[in-house]
Write a structure and sequence with these properties.
single chain, 224 residues, 3 domains, mainly alpha, 5 helices
Amino acid sequence: MKLYITLAGLLLVVFNGLLLFPSIRHSTSPIAAIAFVLALLILALFLFDSRGRAEVAAQAPPAEVPPPKAPAPEPPAPEPAPAAIIQPPSPEPPAESTAEAEIVAFFALLQEKGRLIDFLMEDLAAYEDAEIGAAARVVHEGCKGVLQEHFKIHAISEAQEGAQITVPAGFAADEYRLVGKLSGDPPFTGKLVHKGWKTDTVKLPRIVDASRLPAIAPAEVEIV
């Protein structure tokens, strides 16, 4: 069909070209009529060819559309691991309770070695001075041993009590107590009334269970 339309178009061009020559002036009307018919023929062929293409397209089976791909299945979520059973830690006693228990345990040592609690809690009014002095000797020896075992105690001032000493500038307020007429800035010079004491180390008894304060001394019961 395209070939017929092409030939008709060429003929239409030829006849339209003949109208340009003066020698065929007397044949203009027939040639124009033929050109008009060719134009109508070309239009009819074009319309026929278009309709035929439309019918062929309508009769043609629809192109198969590939089905959409199913989405890939998501991998199963991993099962959560069983939660580890964590045993709660045993509650530790507060530091304050531990310190108080250690102090009580230290008093227990003073009682065990020097009978200090017995001596302090006893009513001494009923005893003679000699009896008190004899008891004090026992208390002194026992408690001194406990102090030397758990504390490294030494004097703050090595001078003899009653001697003149100089307190240096920048002294620690807890190591020197200045009494009397105080004026000006340090260093200060005065008489040593008490040489003072301090410790470099402390080794208190360690307490494992501080949930309650331990006993200073157990009550002794003789079974008869």
